[in-house]
Amino acid sequence: MRDEKTMKSERIYEGKVINLRVDTVELPDRKYSKREIVEHSGAVAIVAVNQEGKIILIKQFRKPVEEVLLEIPAGRIEPKEDPQDTALRELEEETGFKANKIVKLVEYYSTPGFSNEVLHIYLATELTTGIAKPDEDEYIETFPMTLEVAMEKIKSGEIKDSKAIIGILMYYKYYASI
Amino acid sequence: MRDEKTMKSERIYEGKVINLRVDTVELPDRKYSKREIVEHSGAVAIVAVNQEGKIILIKQFRKPVEEVLLEIPAGRIEPKEDPQDTALRELEEETGFKANKIVKLVEYYSTPGFSNEVLHIYLATELTTGIAKPDEDEYIETFPMTLEVAMEKIKSGEIKDSKAIIGILMYYKYYASI
């Protein structure tokens, strides 16, 4: 399968979280088409499981969808930061928990049709309590939940954030059954 | 939990697949912050299972990530189109298969941190063969795969598209065990 050669690349916007560019590409049949591309530096999300075996969910208002969503802790990777360090940092900032054990669950593209964002999901266990320090524009509440309840909330549609769904389902599939 | 009041909304770009706007919001502490929002009309994806019990995966070059990805069939919802009709239409356009049975698996936000895109995933079964009619800028190959192999490819990282991961895991969890 042939790729799409970039004939022109126009930068539309450079922002805080994302940039936008529009590429003109040459298709295999030599025709041209436009590709709108949202650039993102990548992010991590964390399935954090406490001593009672409960997953730490958080609630956060999300402006793009104008809703408070039930999610797992997450955050953007800083320049040159190792994603695993981002995961440990964001978990503590958002929830106050430090993890003494962390393993990678999965890595994927969130929306490869229009963005290059990569998501790295980690499983964090052996938690100890630290102090939450959310970013100044973040307002976060935490909700520990059994895997069974979290799975029910995916089925019912109450959990509707893709990274929470993937993190919980991967934890269910590969770890809960061990 | 209080929401974020929009104080100003600036339209940056209006495109083919996405629009971009930047909202200035008032936070609960009365401070202002910016929210970059990628507007998208929503999409569907389809876990299509053939008579042999194999899931129809497709390969498609994705410019934003400069890679050929293993995905499930998917497409954008047209204005006023019912998502289930989109699913049936896209399945046939991209793979040539008509589905005589279709049920909703899950509905979620792909990246609620910076976009309002909603994804509706359907399970399509009782397939019959029609004629593929991809869009003129789409080049698609199909790969039927057992659920077991697809699950392996999620674990190994060969399948790294979020909608394929969620669709396959939801099919595994709620239907394969029936």
Treating each run of at least 4 consecutive H or I residues as one helix, how many helices of chain A? 3
CATH class of the largest domain in chain A: Alpha Beta
| Class inferred from helices and paired strands of chain A | alpha+beta
CATH names the topology of the largest domain in chain A as: Nucleoside Triphosphate Pyrophosphohydrolase
**Helical amount of chain A:** 10-25%
Oligomeric state of shown chains:
homodimer
Q: Can you name the CATH architecture of the largest domain in chain A?
A: Alpha-Beta Complex
Describe it.
2 copies of one chain form a homodimer. In chain A, helix 2 packs across helix 3. With 178 residues, chain A is α+β, with helices and mostly antiparallel strands. The first copy, chain A, folds into 2 domains: 35 residues; 133 residues, Nucleoside Triphosphate Pyrophosphohydrolase, CATH 3.90.79.10. The relative contact order of chain A is 0.19. The first copy, chain A, contains 3 helices and 10 strands; from the N terminus they run E-E-E-E-E-E-E-H-E-E-E-H-H. In chain A, the strands form 3 sheets. In chain A, strands 7-4-9-8 form a 4-stranded mixed β-sheet, with helices on both faces. In chain A, strand 8 and strand 9 form a beta hairpin. The mean pLDDT of chain A is 93.
